[in-house]
Fold this protein.
Amino acid sequence: MATNVAASRLQGTGANALELDGVGRQFGALTALSGINMRIAPGERRAVLGSNGAGKTTLFNTITGDFHPTSGSIRFFGEDITTLAVHERIRRGLRRTYQISQLFTNLTVRESIYLAYRGVSRNRFSLLRPRVSDSAMAQAESISHAVHLDGERDKTVGTLSHGQQRQLEIALALAGAPRFILFDEPAAGLSPTERRDLIEILNALPKHIGYIIIEHDLDVALRVSEYVSMMHNGQLFTEGTPEEIENDPRVQEIYLGGGHG
């Protein structure tokens, strides 16, 4: 059995990037989440998997503050953020991407990353035009390289391919020194070549940046994570390393149709 690196790290220290204790979310009579307990260490890469309707996106929305939990608590690097507004969580270093691209199509790649960086900086309300030496511009250059968009910096977002737009979304999440990122199905609609590029980008992220990835493409999810949480009907079903999850017959039966090639 593969060594549970993530779990052993958590046992070794009491400091976690993200802690969920008994988190639940109801919409009227519908229970979307129930009793979610999760511990994620700083720098850990976690995949959250499950079939449609398992509660994965609701979990993300609860962590980011789009929805507040109806029960339980959420801590981010030791601070209780259960009732904090979305923008307050962003200022503390929490970022996310969405299933459906939310980009300004008339801006260039460089301008998009620049604005994302300025949006979380102390000078975000300044009316002065940026200089060539502006640190935010330097960040935009560096981040565009990290997501393999060097040659697209001056192209408008609307002219990018679907895969390049997904790469840009990752770039926006990287702006402004994030501490933890939630990736919501970043491989959706990508070609095999674009999926390989995505895997390379995620695996090359700085080691201090942890993340959770929701992904239906198991080949992507299992190659970019060190620990996996499986959800079913709004609850955690099982957890383990990618190897343990891939070889778990219960997972194969429920989520993979009896096997995974």
